[in-house]
Specification:
This protein has 114 residues and is of the alpha/beta class. The protein has 3 helices and 5 strands. The longest helix is centred in the middle third of the chain and has 18 residues.
Length: 114
């Protein structure tokens, strides 16, 4: 997967929050909901609770990097919304990757490696 398709519209995020299933860890929350297109779309949310703009941008960067490493192992046809938590700006992307992998495995979205 060379291009990450982003969720942009407010109603797409709201749909994930209301209809999706959430998977929680101390670093990250993931909302997973099926979509109609046969593609994998992703959105990231960081609230002001996370910290100042520098910390919120760092949170988005580490989440995006962890997702990029997992993207080609995920089943298509889902919208994913990642919500940063208080610890997110202070951990490395490898730590976020471990949590994200565990959550997506629980959601049944990781393809088995052959």
């Amino acid at each position: 997967m060379d291009q990450i398709i982003s969720l942009c519209r407010n109603n797409e995020f709201r749909r994930a929050y209301n209809r999706g299933k959430s998977y929680v860890s101390p670093v990250l929350v993931v909302y997973v909901v099926k979509n109609r297109c046969r593609c994998l779309r992703m959105g990231i949310t960081t609230s002001k609770k996370i910290g100042n703009a520098v910390q919120r941008n760092r949170s988005r960067r580490v989440i995006r990097e962890a997702y990029r490493q997992l993207a080609d192992r995920l089943k298509p046809g889902y919208d994913l919304v990642f919500v940063a938590r208080g610890r997110t700006p202070f951990v490395k992307s490898t730590e976020v990757l471990k949590h994200m992998e565990r959550q997506l495995q629980a959601a049944g979205l990781l393809l088995e490696d052959k």
